[in-house]
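Researcher: Here's my situation. A collaborator sent me these components and asked whether they could plausibly form a single complex. I don't have experimental data yet, so a predicted model of the whole assembly would be a useful starting point for our discussion.
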Amino acid sequence: MRYVPRQPRDDVNVSKEHPLVEASTLFIGLSLIFLAIAVVLILLVDVVLLFVSPDKEVGLFESWSLSDYIATDAEDSRLQSLQGLTDRLARHWPESPYKYNVQIADSDELNAMALPGGTIVVTSGLLDAVESENELAFVLGHEMGHFRNRDHIRGLGRGVVLSIFFAALSGSDGGVNLGSSLSDLTLRGFSRGQEEDADEFGLSIVNSEYGHVANSWRFFERLGDKELGVATYLSTHPSPGDRVNQLIQQAGGNGWAVDGAVVDIDW
Amino acid sequence: MNFGVPFIILVVAYFVGTILERRHFDDIRRREAEVKNFPVLTFETLPTDWQVGSAGLATGSVVVSLDYFKRVIAGLRALVGGRIKTYEPLLDRARREAMLRMVERAKREGYDAVVNARLETSRLANSRGNGKGTAGVEMLAFGTAITLNKRW
C-alpha cells in the first residue's frame, strides 16, 4: 500500500468571507431589525394610548412614581402656592377628568410639561424666571391645554420604547427608566398646531381667572429679548417672537382684554 | 452611554488578532510542508504488508482563546444563528497546530508514522462568571506512533 503525501488544504474549513464583511453585515442587519421593531412598538404604544380614556389613564399612571425619573423637589417652599394656583385655574375647566398634581423639578432649565395621569412638572428655573402670577398662570393653563387635547399621551411611545431599549442595552434590571434627565421626557416635542391650541386654551383659562390676559406673554418677550439666556425652552416650544405675535392674535380674536391689573407672585 | 472604550478594544483586538492569525497560518503552512512526507493516518488496523518495529503514544495539544473581536461578532451571530465564521480560522489553526506538534514530536523521537490518529477537544471553563464563560479550547491530537522495518 502506497502512501501519497498531501498537505492540508486551507480553503476547506475556513470561510472565505472577510471578518469585517461578516461584522458589518451582522451589525447593520441587526440594527435595522431592532430599528424596525422599535418603530413598530412606538407606533403601537402611541395608537393604544389614543384609545385609553382619561379615567383609565389616571388609573394606569397612578402608581407611576415621578421621582424615579425626574429629580423633584418636594421641599420647595413654592410648591404649596403653585398647587393652590393650579387648583384655582382648574376650576375654570370643571369637566376636566384630571386632578392636577404639580411637582417642581430641580433644574435650571426653563420648562414645564404635562405628564400622563395629570401631573404637571414645572422646573425651579422657570419659577425663578417668572415675575408675576399671570405669567405663571399662563404656563400652567398652557399645560392644561395639552391635557385637554390629550397631547401629553401622544408621542409617549418613543420615550417608553427607547428607554426600554436603553435599559436592555445597558443591562440595568432595576426597572425601566423613563429618561434620566428632564430633557429626555420633553424631547417628545409637540407640533406647532398642538402648541397653538394649548396656548389658546391657556389664554382662556387666564382670562377666566383674571378677567384679562395681561402679562401672559411677558415671559416670552423676556425670553426673546435674551434676558433669559436659556435654549431649552426653545427646543421644545415655538420661538418666543412668533409666539408672542400668535398670542396677541389669539387674544384679539377672542376679544380678551390685554390690559389689566397684574398680580404679584406671593413668594 | 459610554461605548468608546469597548469600541477601542474591538478595533485593537481586530488588528492584533488579524496579524497574529496571519503569522500563525504562515507558520503552520511552512511546518506542514516540512513534515509533508510523514504519514498521519486514521487506521485502527495496519495494512498487512507493513512491518512495525516499535510503537508509542504520540500526542500534541494546543490551547486557543478567542479575541474580543471574534467574541463580539460571535455574540451578534448567536442572535440570528448560522455559521460562526470568525471561529472557523481559529479552530482550523488549533487542529493543524495540534497535529503538527504531534507529528513533530513523533518525528523527533524517530518514529516513521502515526496511525489511529484522533482529535479531541475540550472547553476550558472561565473562572469568572460561575464557569459559564469559555476561557479557551484545548485541541488534543493523539495517535499511535510506529517505526517501520521496511519502508515503502
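Model: Some features of this prediction you could bring to your collaborator: Confidence is low (pLDDT under 50) at residues 173-183 of chain A. The CA atoms of residues 176 and 265 of chain A lie 38 Å apart.
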